[in-house]
Amino acid sequence: MTDLYINEQFTGTVDDPQLFIEDFKDLRRKGTLPESVNIFFDAKNNELHLFSEAGRAQRPLIMVKEGKPLLTEKHLEQLTNGEITWVDLVRQGVVEYLDAAEEENALVAYLETELTPDHTHLEVTPGSISGITTALVPFGNYNQSSRLIIGSKNQKQALGFYAANYHLRMDMDSNILHYPQFPLVKTKVHEVIDYDEHPAGQNFIVAIMCYDGYNMEDGVILNKSSIEMGLARSTYYRPVNAEELRYSGGLVDEVSVPDKDVKGYKSEHDYRFLEGDGIIYPEAKVTEGDVVIGRTSPPRFLSSLDEYNLTAAVRRESSLSLKHGESGVADFVVLTENEEGNKLVQVRLRAERIPEIGDKFTSRHGQKGVMGMVVPNEDIPFSSSGIVPDMIFTPHGISSRMTVSHLIELIGGKIGALSGRFVDGTLFEAETEPDLRKELLSLGFREDGRETFYDGRTGKQMLAKIYVGNMYYLRLRHMVANKIQSRARGPIQLLTRQPTEGKAKEGGLRLGEMEKDTFVAHGASLLLKERFDSDKIVLPICEQCGLVAVEDHYKNRKYCLMCGEDIKINNVEMSYAFKLLMDEFRSLGVYPKLNLKTKY
Question: Between 20 and 30 A from 87 (CA), which of 50, 63, 280, 345?
Answer without folding.
Answer: 50
